[in-house]
Amino acid sequence: MNPASTPGTPGGDASGGTGHALTADEHAEYQRLRRAATVRHRRARYAGATVLLVLTLLLAPLALVATWVHDQVADTDRYVQTVAPLASDPAVQGVVIDRLTDRVVAQVDVEAITAALTKTLSDNGAPPRVVEGSKSLTAPLRSAVHSVVERTVTRAVTSELFRQAWEGANRRAHATVVNMLTGDRQGAVQAEGDTVQLDIGAVVDQVRQRLVDAGFEKAAAIPDSDRTVTLFRTEQLAKAQDGMRLLDVVGTWLPVLTLAIAALAVWVAPAHRVMVMITALGVGVTTVVVLVALVVLRRVYLDSVPATTLPPDAAAAIFDTFLRFLRASARTLLVVCLLTALTAYLYGPGRVARGVRALAGRGAAGAGNTLRRAGVTTGLTGHWLAAHQKWTTGIVIGAGALALVLWNHPTVGAVALVLVLVLVVPAIIAVLAAAQPAPDPPD
């Protein structure tokens, strides 16, 4: 008999190596202290998980917006992709056509043309009725000029050449600003200290070569010194560059930090699956708040823009175009959150979840039995898949989540594609596991 166990010590618990048996009262006190320590430990985990969850919910919308702002400010390709549809939008084209037409017509002095025509007719002895009639040609002539100019401008603005020029101008302007804010010395416009300089070296080289080609051989001696022109000085340039560096850090690492805090909250919580559901639904709610805020912001923006400055349809097109990627990202995040919460629920003990899992298991078993009856078996591979089915399913789900994390600007379509793969691959694995050879009957 174990000397640390006696009939008077339920469960045979010892005193931790002190050499004597615990009495019933000591055993009860030990169990009470152990339960109290367990409760304190669980409470601490719940408290820590709650704090991490709150941080995740606060950082998630900030990370979403910061990523969008970083893409628009620092990524020239993304910016051009954002503004490119404006060149083809009918409302925006209408504004451009009207303003260009008015500006061109304003440069035409119709009154002077009418006065010159009247003077010419009078000097050449035209009948008085004709001379007087020419004075009333101002309005028809202005209308004719306006029609001709508007027709010409419309053809230009609605052409493919305008869209190409629009994209090219935006690309060059954005790249110039980015180079200036990042201190990159590529391009013609460069930042040096508190000055913005224009590098005219390429222009000087071209002019010198053209002069030499035209016969001015002494132009080859033009020196290479002083090839920059200072455009302006500003004490705010350093602050703008610091802001650009901060935006680069925040836009890149804030989403990673948010995801890490969310994963830590799930790990700290005693009930991991429940915390996954709570975190996913919480982030989904904050995403809905962002979408609602965008709707409110759109209404406020449209109400603040006077119709004389910008027509409502053009203002709406500009707002929707600039924010469409932010709206698309929010919708994608919302779909991911809902799918994550649904997946966590289906792995739980609920009646519906058990029914879905049972139905899927019966379907996979039926498909596997059909293959086995047809003479198709998976051999050792099927045995291995059956023994490690939970691991393989977890790896597939993890691979799908990693694909979405690494996907550059995922859309709802990308999420749907990953979802289909995550559903199909485990189903195939389950069928292959069910198609393993039947065990040999015992002798």
**Fraction of residues in helix:** over 70%
End-to-end gap: 42 Å
pLDDT average, as an integer?
A: 79
The helix count comes to 15
Low-pLDDT windows of residues: 1-17
Strand order of the largest sheet: 1-2-3
In this structure, how is the largest beta sheet organized? 3 strands, antiparallel
How big a fraction of the residues is strand? under 5%
CA radius of gyration: 37 Å
Transmembrane segments: 46-69, 246-268, 274-297, 328-347, 391-407, 414-435
Protein name: Integral membrane protein
Keywords: Membrane, Transmembrane, Transmembrane helix
Region (Disordered): 1-21
Could you name the key traits of this structure?
15 helices; 3 strands; transmembrane; transmembrane helix; Integral membrane protein; three-stranded antiparallel sheet; 443 residues; membrane; mainly alpha
Give a short synopsis of this structure.
This is Integral membrane protein. With 443 residues, the protein is mostly helical.
Descriptive account of the structure:
It is built from 15 helices and 3 strands. The chain is mostly helical and 443 residues long. Among the domains are: 75-182, no CATH class; 351-434, no CATH class. It has a 3-stranded antiparallel beta sheet. Helix 1 crosses helix 2 (76-83). The longest helix is centred in the first third of the chain and has 51 residues, at 24-74. The two termini are 42 Å apart.
